[in-house]
C-alpha cells in the first residue's frame, strides 16, 4: 500500500501494513506542504512509543524512524519525521487541518506499519499512542472473519457482475508475509466462468493482489488484526449454476437480487431483504465449512433494459453498507454490538476515496446522497468516540 491516499481507503482496527515501496528507515520523507491554515491555527501534539510484541509482552524499538502523514482530499504525504529514543518514544508538534486525517508510521522487517488516525483536538492531544510493529512469518495462519458476496440480476448473455468482500483476520503476534508469488499471504479460488476482475476499495494495494487463472493471490503483508479485500468480477453460470468456493470456510453473507435463485451451501438460510439503490436483495447468512461451496441455481439472462444501472453505483452503496454494518454476520452474543469507530472510519474513507475529484461529473442527487451519508457517519463516529472518552478525529 502506498504512502498516499490509499493508506486510508479502508482503515483497519489497529494497524496498517504497507509493501516495501514505502520509505526506508534511513530515508528522509519527501515533505509535502498542506494548504495554508492561517496564523491562528492551534498547535497539536502527537506522541507515543514504537513497540514490538514479544511473547506475552511488548518491547520498545529504539531508533525507529517515525513519519507523520497528512491525508487530505487535495494533498497527502509525509509531513514530518522523528527518531524514537532509547525507550521507543517519539513526539510531533504540528498545526492540524481539521479537514484532513493524520497518521503515524514506522518501518520494521521491510514492512511499513501505520497507526489509527491521530486525534487533533489541541485541548486533548494524542500523547500516549502505541505504534505497533511486528516480526514476520511466511506461515502465520490467516482466517476469514467474514465473506460478503453480492450477486445482482443477470445482464445480457447471463453474466452477473459480482461484488465479493472478504474480511481476513490474523489472530497471531507476527505479520504474515509472502516470500514469493508461489507462496502468497492468502489465496482465493474464483467461481468457474469468471471473466474480468478488478480490486475495489480495500485495505490492500491493488498492485499486491494478482490473478493467475481462477486463483487470486494476496502478496501484501497481513499484520495482526483485520484486513478487508474487495473484488469485483463478472461470472457466467456454468450449467445453470454459480459456484463460489469458500476455501478455509467461515461465515458468509450472501445478497442475491434474483427472486427465483436457489441458494445452498453449509448452513446458509434466508435472513431478510435489503434495498440498495432502489434494488431489492435477499440476504442469506450462515457458516460454510472448509472446502465447501456456495451454490446459486439461477435462471436465464435478464433483459438488457433491466441491467442499465451502473455497477460502480451499486458497488459504492453496498461497500458503505457492509463497511458500516459488518457486524450483521451472526455473533455468539445475543445483543448486537455497537458499530466500532474504526468501521465508521472505514465507511467515511471509502466514500471520500470513491468521490474524490468527481463533483463536476456527478449528478446533483447522487452528490447530495454522498454528502448526507458522510455527515451521518461522521456524527455517529463522534458519538462513538465520545462514548470512549476520546475526542472526534476532526
Protein architecture, described:
It is a single chain. α1 (311-324) packs antiparallel against α2. Mean pLDDT is 77; it is low at 1-16, 19-38, 302-311, 324-338 and 388-394. 13% of the residues lie in helices and 38% in strands. The protein contains 3 helices and 24 strands. The longest helix has 24 residues, at 364-387. It is mainly β and 394 residues long. It has a 7-stranded mixed sheet with strand order 15-18-12-11-20-23-22, with helices on one face. A 5-stranded antiparallel sheet has the order 1-8-7-4-5, with no helix packed on it. Strands 2, 3, 6 and 9 form a 4-stranded mixed sheet that branches. It is globular and about 65 Å long. It folds into 3 domains: 5-134, Immunoglobulin-like (Sandwich); 143-324, Immunoglobulin-like (Sandwich), CATH 2.60.40; 345-387. The two termini are 24 Å apart.
Helix content: 10-25%
Radius of gyration over alpha carbons? 22 Å
Largest sheet: 7 strands, mixed
Distance between the termini: 24 Å
Portion in strands: 35-45%
Uncertain segments: 1-16, 19-38, 302-311, 324-338, 388-394
Broad shape? globular
Q: How confident overall, as mean pLDDT?
A: 77
Reading side by side through the largest sheet, how are the strands ordered? 15-18-12-11-20-23-22
What is the total domain count? 3
Tell me what the CATH architecture of the largest domain is: Sandwich
How many beta-strand segments? 24
What is the string of SSEs from the N terminus onward? EEEEEEEEEEEEEEEEEEEEEEEEHHH
In CATH's first tier, which class of the largest domain applies? Mainly Beta
If helices are DSSP runs of H or I spanning 4 or more residues, what is the number of helices?
Answer: 3
Look at the helices and sheets and give the structural class.
mainly beta
And the CATH topology of the largest domain?
Immunoglobulin-like
Amino acid at each position: 500500500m502506498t504512502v498516499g491516499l490509499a493508506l486510508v481507503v479502508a482503515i483497519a482496527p489497529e494497524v496498517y501494513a504497507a509493501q516495501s515501496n514505502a520509505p526506508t528507515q534511513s530515508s528522509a520523507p519527501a515533505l509535502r506542504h498542506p494548504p495554508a491554515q492561517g496564523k491562528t491555527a492551534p498547535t497539536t501534539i502527537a506522541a507515543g512509543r514504537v513497540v514490538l510484541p514479544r511473547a506475552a509482552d511488548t518491547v520498545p524499538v529504539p531508533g525507529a524512524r517515525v513519519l507523520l502523514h497528512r491525508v487530505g482530499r487535495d494533498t497527502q504525504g509525509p509531513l514530518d519525521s522523528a527518531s524514537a529514543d532509547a525507550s521507543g518514544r517519539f513526539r510531533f508538534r504540528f498545526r492540524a487541518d481539521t479537514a484532513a486525517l493524520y497518521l503515524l508510521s514506522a518501518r520494521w522487517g521491510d514492512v511499513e506499519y501505520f497507526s489509527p488516525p491521530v486525534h487533533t483536538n489541541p485541548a486533548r492531544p494524542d500523547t500516549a499512542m502505541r505504534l505497533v510493529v511486528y516480526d514476520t512469518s511466511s506461515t502465520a495462519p490467516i482466517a476469514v472473519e467474514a465473506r460478503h458476496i453480492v450477486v445482482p440480476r443477470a445482464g445480457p448473455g447471463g453474466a452477473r457482475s459480482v461484488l465479493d468482500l472478504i474480511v481476513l483476520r490474523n489472530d497471531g503476534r507476527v505479520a504474515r508475509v509472502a516470500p514469493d508469488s508461489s507462496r502468497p499471504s492468502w489465496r482465493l479460488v474464483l467461481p468457474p466462468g469468471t471473466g474480468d476482475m478488478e480490486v475495489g476499495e480495500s485495505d490492500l494495494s491493488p498492485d499486491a493482489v494478482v490473478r493467475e487463472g481462477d486463483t487470486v493471490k494476496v502478496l501484501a503483508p497481513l499484520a495482526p488484526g483485520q484486513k478487508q479485500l474487495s473484488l469485483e468480477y463478472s461470472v457466467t453460470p456454468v450449467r445453470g449454476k454459480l459456484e463460489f468456493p469458500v476455501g478455509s470456510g467461515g461465515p458468509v453473507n450472501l445478497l442475491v437480487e434474483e427472486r427465483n435463485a436457489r441458494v445452498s451451501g453449509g448452513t446458509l438460510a434466508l435472513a431478510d431483504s435489503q434495498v440498495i439503490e432502489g434494488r431489492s436483495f435477499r440476504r442469506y447468512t450462515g457458516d460454510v465449512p472448509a472446502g465447501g461451496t456456495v451454490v446459486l441455481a439461477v435462471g436465464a439472462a435478464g433483459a438488457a433494459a433491466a441491467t442499465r444501472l451502473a455497477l460502480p453505483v451499486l458497488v459504492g452503496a453496498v461497500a458503505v453498507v457492509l463497511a458500516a454494518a459488518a457486524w450483521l454476520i451472526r455473533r455468539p452474543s445475543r445483543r448486537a454490538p455497537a458499530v466500532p469507530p474504526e468501521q465508521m472510519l472505514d465507511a467515511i474513507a471509502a466514500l471520500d476515496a470513491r468521490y474524490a475529484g468527481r463533483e463536476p461529473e456527478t449528478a446533483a442527487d447522487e452528490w447530495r446522497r454522498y454528502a448526507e451519508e458522510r455527515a451521518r457517519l461522521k456524527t455517529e463516529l463522534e458519538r462513538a468516540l465520545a462514548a470512549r472518552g476520546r475526542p472526534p478525529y476532526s
